[in-house]
Amino acid sequence: MGDKKTVYVVSDSLGETANSVVDAAASQFDTDRIETVKFSHVKTVRELKNIVLKAADKDAMIVYTLINPELRKEFYTFGRERDIIMIDVMGPIMEKMENLLNSKPVLQPGIRHQLDQNYFKRVEAMEFTVKYDDRNDKKGIELADVVLIGVSRTSKTPLCIYLSYRGHKAANIPLVPEVDVPKLLYENPENKVIGLTIDPLLLNEIRLERLKALGLSQDSQYASIKRINEELDYADQIMKKIGCPVINVTNKSIEESANEVQEYF
Amino acid sequence: MGDKKTVYVVSDSLGETANSVVDAAASQFDTDRIETVKFSHVKTVRELKNIVLKAADKDAMIVYTLINPELRKEFYTFGRERDIIMIDVMGPIMEKMENLLNSKPVLQPGIRHQLDQNYFKRVEAMEFTVKYDDRNDKKGIELADVVLIGVSRTSKTPLCIYLSYRGHKAANIPLVPEVDVPKLLYENPENKVIGLTIDPLLLNEIRLERLKALGLSQDSQYASIKRINEELDYADQIMKKIGCPVINVTNKSIEESANEVQEYF
Known about the structure:
Two copies of one chain form a homodimer.
Chain A: E1 5-11, H1 16-26, E2 34-39, H2 45-58, E3 61-65, H3 69-81, E4 86-88, H4 91-101, H5 117-131, H6 138-143, E5 146-150, H7 156-165, E6 170-174, H8 184-187, E7 193-197, H9 200-213, H10 225-242, E8 246-248, H11 254-264
Parallel strand pairs in A: 1-2, 1-3, 3-4, 5-6, 5-7, 7-8
């Protein structure tokens, strides 16, 4: 244990890159001891100097992404003069990339957030995914980039959301023994179908939690091992019949499972 | 113009942090000239040495996140011996954080992806958001952390998805002059309602695109300036009556608008 420390995240854009570096590093320590304060869209020397003065006052460390090399240099110098720990996330890689490509950077902060075609593709993918979530729908299969199938509580929805955020139109279809799936699924057009499976005991736990959250009786067959095994067997048959790849999501985070899904398409 | 260059992203976990640093840097150059190859879950010296040999062969630059300081050091030394540009994303910040906190890191790769409470909170938020997307529903208002309102095509859905991915239960309610909103909205419980507005001319363009994408006639009143102005006036009245903050999403990316939303709650 120890006292709390502050990390200032400073960026000429939103600060998402610096934030993710800080999060990754902080996760290796006692995260409760680290408080992050974000300064976005910082673009003048004056603002940067004010931040340094505040940081000196708070004994904060500064992690920054600034595109302009002069601002970077001035910020660093000013911070070091006040004995502040300065971590430059973009400087080293931008300088090396300049050498590698033998070309100058455009020096435009926030360029990634521009409303270009790629952006509209992502918006479209997210809207698609919300529309075709948990639906037994032929049209979803036709229009999707990827179709996830699996029994209830195999992370179909969060996985689809993650994938859509990355620009992929992801649909998902629940597998329930009592409900037939669309015939088109068996044709597996463009090999876009991917199955999800999970350890029955973990699924049992997850479903019990789910029943609790919904205020329902824990005796429901939904969470019984017998029913779960039946459902997983049924899903297994369908996936074999389709001949699609199957990802086991047991103890995997959404990011990890999504990584596997992306490797398939 | 110039030839293509390769960047190797190497990580003992998924490589998302290194990837986002590479993307941010690459966006400042001609991104078509940069090809990224990702190596995830790399954990042994042998694997790292193989990657260096491949990189030397391809004249690739290496950007890496490794938690273990000895692996980091060995990788760096081996890479530099082969004259490879080596960018260590995690090393500098982890060393400084160790000093700042005066505590040792746990040295466990992928710790952020653990299935902890925070993780389940995010999954729950995503499922909530899919369920309460574009719904005129009292229950959504009751249960949400944040409720977005706005006319059609003001980015309600993508914004909610982004927020849910960050762990917030986000609901959205469409504003249409012909449909009454739930009474509860006017009470604005816990000040969770936020309005979205947009420039009428941009909305006109977006809706024309939308009609085109749906294969519908561009003459539809949906995209007419007259109708758009009526809708925006109506929305404006509702938002004033509620007294909620209003965010203008014109020319803003989802990330930027979401940043503003998060500042309000």
